[in-house]
Amino acid sequence: MSAAYKEISVKDIQEAVIRDLKNYKALKVKLENIRERKEASALHIFPVLKRNESIDELKAKQIERAINDSLDPIERKIIEYKYLNINSRDMTDLEIHMELGLKKGKYYIKKKEAIFQLAKALGII
């Protein structure tokens, strides 16, 4: 194996997807805040150190599409409960599999499948 080629592990894929899902929550809030400031004609109420609004908007749109279009309803609920629960705390795996009425093993299979589907849809793998 050459030095330029690095085998991608399951953990690397999961970490990349989870990082993007957690950033997605902040991106959605950021874009809503920007829209609100534009409506109020108050664009610069906070200092701006880095500006990537068009990239952020594209990224949020693609993550949302990946969640809505590449996951089955159970996978979508798992991702929403685990990583995107904006109005309250993220739920634990135990709480989610109990809430969805899934056995523990089936829950972890569906969670892993959801993460891999998102990785494919987002072009991570």
UniProtKB/TrEMBL annotation:
Full protein name: ArpU family phage packaging/lysis transcriptional regulator
Species the sequence originates in: Ornithinibacillus xuwenensis
Matching NCBIfam families: phage_arpU
